[in-house]
Amino acid sequence: MFEKILSRSQLYLAFFGPRKPEPGTIYLRQNRVYILPTRPGLAFAVALGVMLIGSINYNLSLGYILTFLLASMGLVAILHTFRNLVHLHITPGRANPVFAGELAWFELFVENRSAYDRCSIVLWHEGKATQCDVASARGATVSIPVAAPRRGWLSPRRITIETRFPVGLLRAWSYIQPDSHCVVYPRPDAGLLPLPEPSGGSGEKRVASGGSDDFAGLRAYQVSDSPRHIHWKAAAREQGLQTKVFSGRATAELWLDWNELPANLGLEARLSRLTRWVLSADQEGLRYGLRLPGVELEPDAGEPHRLACLRELALYEL
Amino acid sequence: MNSSRAAYGPGAPNAAIQLRHLFWLLGGLALVIAPHMLNLPWWLNLDACIVFAWRIYLALGERALPKKWLLALLVAGGMLGVYLTYHTLFGRDSGVALLVLFLSLKLLELHRPRDAIVLVLLSYFLALTNFFYSQTLPTAALMLVSALVNTASLVNFAAPGRALQANLKTSAVLLTQAGPVMLVLFLLFPRVQGPLWGLPQDAYSGVTGLSDSMSPGAISSLSQSDAIAFRVRFQGDSPPRPQLYWRGPVFWNFDGLTWRPGDTRSFTQIRFEARGTPYDYEVTLEPHNHNWLFALELAAKVPPNASVAPDYVLFARRPVRNRVRYDMRSYTSFAEGADDDADELRPGLQLPAGFNPRARRLAQEWAAGGASGTAIVQQALNYFREQGFVYTLQPPLLGRDSVDEFLFGSKRGFCEHYASSFVFLMRAAGLPARVVTGYQGGEINPVDGYMIVRQSDAHAWAEVWLQGRGWVRFDPTAVVSPARVESGVAAAVSATDPLPLMARTSLTWLRGLRYNWDALANKWNQLVLGYNPERQREFLSRLGMSEPSWENMALTLFWGVGALLALLTAWLLRRMRTSDRVQRLWLRFCAKLETNGCARAAHEGPADFVARSAGRYPAEAARIRAIGERYIALRYGESTDAHALAELRLLVREFRV
């Protein structure tokens, strides 16, 4: 509540505003943990005030005792809330690559080196909360969901780590910005595209290696299909453009080439298309190479190759 | 290692309330509402029970809560009911009733943890209002339990995933640590003598005690009450029981049915002729909502903020609405009012015309022939002694000529019957007389030595003005039933009469228990409930505070609470000690180097670090290597050599750069 009012002021931003990511393990020192009452906490204070006045007015000795007991409980709760958060160690962990448009999960390792358990630690990132409990001398791995709208590097924004334990009347919080990032691959195209034909001197190789590319069927034509695979006879019969699909290209070696894409495709669209191709080629177990302006990955297959290709696509021209 | 889970924590305001937390909350509320049920109207009790059951039913079946319009209707109906019951919405009792009403209906609007927290806050408040009616030790114990349970409810909603038991323990830890702070606040918070403003009309209802008038049945109804009227601590011996006449209101005016007080002048000086040695004692008077203070006949001094009437009744300036304590000195042997003149005695002769003709005739017969006052009194007492009068708590109802019917008809009565008819007879015989009410008797609690005077000791007696002697006390009840004065009501009435349990003498074991309990309750009253502004000043000056002004108190309070919280902080944030001694020494060594700007990097193993720092401080290289060798041997080797550990300790301790 206070935060809402404060967040509009410049002073507040100067103190609590975004900072540069902190490398390595973040230690919540005492001077970076803030604490203020929550709305119920303020209501509690008002209730105590009324109770005190009632006790004075009616001379209720036991009323004084109850009021003071609860007030003291509130004071003690400040310390307990504070210590539930302070002295935590937070280390960024893995953040697996994702495709643009997906949620990236940033792992944070929250470590409690104190002699007491921590309960209900909540990490807020862009309106989403993740909660964890950390027992004494233990750690907990927390995954923070971060939306990944664009390809490239992704880092979480400032994370608010807070707790209202034990009584919910107070909120202790701190801001952390772990130095953690993950690669966001371009969003693959929606359409299923055929793989471009192995090209550039591989024509002969293809004949030599297989020579028996079997006709597997037809499917609807799409812009990038090679004219050589168009089923012209069907087109002549005015059945629309269809593309012939061949099987048995498993042994083929193909190049996923930037230059083979239609000229009217934009940069991001090209990368999306190529991403789809990489995925499709990998799925079909092909050996493929990736050619981007200034980048060339020799044809290969397998997981490391796929990741290398995707990474090139993700970080291209960034 | 715990893994993260989806957020339904305190930060998620839309989280649902778990069933177990709901039941816990209901339990806490029930603890707070239960004691109020004794004072609330039956329909509200029923309402609360129904709402509780309803809420449980809804929760068990995961059914939807009632609609807003139904709730509004219930609130309106409840408020109307409170108004019809109490004829106001703003009194003390009606306020409590409204609070119970809102609290129970809020249960039907309990969707989220946020609502539950509101309920917990309300329950704290309701727990306080219970002290309007009772501040005894059991009430305090109940308060502690309810605070514990309700605070655990707060913890439940802040840590929904935790076990109830763990949350209860957290609540207990919080309240335990709050204890010392509470004590400091209680002792040092500058006390103000309330009330701060006018209290509602019904603020002091339900207090038992003598009334400001006396009609038949007034005192016998009190005798059913076990409640304590006041406690007395004598310095030295207490007077023998027959002398324990505690003087209360004195009545002069009789209208045929009811006795009322007369002269209302007041003085601050007491004039009478004292004889013998005085008794010094301290009275702790329970609140009785009237002005008079009780003292042994006859009080020789006037307490502060009090005055004395011509008939020796002590009046406090304001009605006694809180327990008060005053020091007192009394002479049980005295002569008073011997020189009163006719004007002063005239009210003592007033009689309502046309009432009780037979009694008048009887008294006039006694007075005929110029019999002396003493002789007339003797005649009357003989009459009571010889005519078969019975002392009973259950006298028959009397009609218009109550004195006639009593004297010549029923002959069964309680002290007020005897005192009233005796005074009537004396006045009819021409002797000034008045009715004195108060308490007679009292028992010493052997546990703490306090004398306890209960409402069941309420008594009425007579005073007659005799030429040359002044006002003399006569107790016609003592003539009829000497046991009443010698040993108390229980001994004087028949076994079938209703009496409070404690007044029965036969239950000795129960009395023993009661004595102990009462001594404890008295300690509680004196130390805790009686801690008022005066007591606070007294206590603080005894602690050495030279000038216990509120500023000083506030300052001491501030520092006291601050010191306690600082201690608690230090204890709460104490670091976990590395149990490994070797590791501790190594860390100390690293810390020493770090202060010199040579910090060990996180990735650096001990060997690398030793090599690097030795290179940086060539003068200390040998020592650094020695430490490194021993550390590596102790930590990673198989060596558990105590000698090597001692060497390492010495090396680290003496290490300087």
Name the quaternary structure. heterodimer
What is the radius of gyration of chain B? 37 Å
Estimate the strand proportion of chain A: 25-35%
Name the strands of the widest sheet of chain B in spatial order: 13-8-3-19-18
Structural class of chain B: alpha+beta
How widely separated are the two ends of chain A?
40 Å
Total of DSSP H or I helical runs spanning 4+ residues of chain B: 23
Number of DSSP E strands of chain A: 17
Binned, the helix content of chain A reads: 25-40%
Which spans of chain A of ≥5 residues are poorly predicted at pLDDT below 50? 200-212
How far apart lie the N and C ends of chain B? 41 Å
Q: Determine the mean pLDDT of chain B.
A: 84
Radius of gyration of chain A, taken over Cα atoms and rounded to an integer in Å: 30 Å
Major sheet characteristics of chain A: 5 strands, antiparallel
Strand order of the largest sheet of chain A: 2-11-10-6-7
| Count of DSSP-assigned helices of chain A | 8
Order of helices and strands of chain A: HHEEHHEEEEEEEEEEHEHEEHEEH
> How much helicity do the residues of chain B have?
40-55%
Q: How would you describe the shape of chain A? A: elongated
Characteristic key phrases:
A: alpha+beta; 4-stranded antiparallel beta sheet; 8 helices; B: 657 residues; alpha+beta; 5-stranded antiparallel beta sheet; 23 helices; 48% helix; disordered N terminus
Structural summary, described in words:
The complex is a heterodimer of chains A (318) and B (657). The longest helix of chain A is centred in the N-terminal third of the chain and has 25 residues. About 4% of the residues of chain A have low confidence. Chain A contains 8 helices and 17 strands. Chain A is an alpha+beta fold and 318 residues long. Chain A is elongated and about 105 Å long. In chain A, helix 3 runs antiparallel to helix 4. In chain B, 48% of the residues lie in helices and 13% in strands. Chain B has 23 helices and 21 strands. Chain B has a 5-stranded antiparallel sheet, with no helix packed on it. A 5-stranded antiparallel sheet of chain B has the order 10-4-17-20-21. In chain B, strand 11 and strand 12 form a beta hairpin. In chain B, helix 3 packs antiparallel against helix 4. At the A-B interface, helix 3, helix 4, strand 6, strand 7 and strand 8 of A face strand 1, strand 2, helix 5, helix 6 and helix 7 of B. Strand 8 of chain A pairs parallel with strand 1 of chain B, so a sheet runs across the interface.
